[in-house]
Amino acid sequence: MRFVIVTGMSGAGKSTALKVLEDKGYFCVDNLPIPLMTKFAEMFSAGDTEIDKVALGIDIRGGQAFKGLERELGQIDKMGIHYEILFLDAADDVLVKRYKETRRQHPLGGMGHIDVGIAKEREKIAFLKMQAAYILDTSKMLTRELRLELEKIFVEGKDFKNLYITVMSFGFKYGIPRDADLVFDVRFLPNPYYIEELRPKTGNDPEVQNYVMDNDKAREFMDKLTEMIDFLIPNYILEGKNQLVVAVGCTGGKHRSVTLSNALYQYLEPKGSYGVRIEHRDIGKDVITKEK
């Protein structure tokens, strides 16, 4: 039997994860009273049912009983029942935004103080994150991207390294991304903006990509960039980092940074030992600015 405990921060996507697992043949139960966990695990591990994949949703909605969760998990361990913890997480500002969009109150927020509730929750569930086999940071994930990651782990059985990489292009004139871990400036490369026929195009167009990359500086930079990323990723994984944002910037975020970000994404994506996505933050902003 495969027994998955789905938990994490409220608003990070636990309900979505349970729906995905249910679609993939898991028997899912959400918010089971914590004192019943041991009996629940024992019942399915006995082999008396045809159910061989179970997912159990647990979070701080368990109230006072949540304090007994460590004890229950200890009991399950003593019984020799194997389980995996999937921990869904997201940045505090993202969680606050999600709560405001849905107009929900945080279970621990009291008088509507979402940030206070989030801080309390992080403290209460920290031990679960420490024990988690899989940590997914959904701060920048679309629902379909979360679905794909869950399918890799729980359907395809692929190795998972608890790291999700976002490659982001941006324009320096619009500001450096606040959540960037690594920032690279490619304004030293030839600028397609000054070529009339290339100006309206973007780094997603082959003509712009050829112009930017058809020189020794761009190729050497790309070689050095991928070499450094290859060195950093396994060390970040060992450190326990689960979200990495690599930001590549040029002046307007339309040509050079988009080209290099696409090249880096194409280099990283086939490796498959971590999740990777691409985001072009400012690719259309010069059009908006001109129209104003």
TrEMBL record:
- Write out the entry's keywords from A to Z: ATP-binding, GTP-binding, Nucleotide-binding
Q: What sequence ranges are listed for the domain RapZ C-terminal? A: 164-283
- Lineage: superkingdom: Bacteria
Where would I find the RapZ-like N-terminal domain in this sequence? 1-155
UniProt name for this protein: UPF0042 nucleotide-binding protein
Annotated GO MF terms: ATP binding; GTP binding
Q: Which residues bind ATP?
A: 8-15
Q: Does the keyword Cell division apply?
A: no
Residues recorded as binding GTP, renumbered to this chain, are 59-62
